[in-house]
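Researcher: I'd like a structural prediction for the single chain below. Treat it as a standalone chain; there are no partners to consider.
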Amino acid sequence: AVRDKLLFEEFAPDPAELTGFVESDGYVAMEAEHYARAVEGRGVRWLRIPQLGRTLSAMTPVPVTFPGVSPGGDGPRLEYRMHLFDGGEVTVHAFLSPTLDYDDTGALRYAVSIDDGTPEVVNVIRDTSLAAWEEAVAHNIRIGTSRHTVDGPGPHVVKFWAVDPGVVLQKLVVETGELKPSYLGPSESFYRPAR
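Model: Treating it as a single chain, here is the predicted structure.
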């Protein structure tokens, strides 16, 4: 307990300068609509869908007919600011609305990076069976997972990259410790929007 208190005091953000989310209890949970920056480009823009999803709303790249894009550079993305108290390996869970592979490509992909890291592409339709689709619809969620390395404590930016059309983001959860199981995922972390 004393070590945790000292660690918090050493790496605690200055409340006057803080924007974004703050790690607590081994995670940072961010609702999709609470991004710090939405970057459009390559014919793709971002659309907020109110009250879609299990906890607040959703964000999706549009138009739904855009050809797939490669993540990175000036590509379309949502950026989320967060403050971590330690560095090392983290796991990013993307909570997505269930969507069919309506382009029949066998994939529904997005990518995630942290800070200037290389985007990691994730395909959330690895199982194309009817049973997998029924389970996703029954729970109103598909969860994609990626692993990343964070340089150290302090401010960081999680980037959610558009790759394929049809991806509908409900929530991002950055797991820094042991994430306790829950049906809806953890509650949103302390958050202060940009001024």
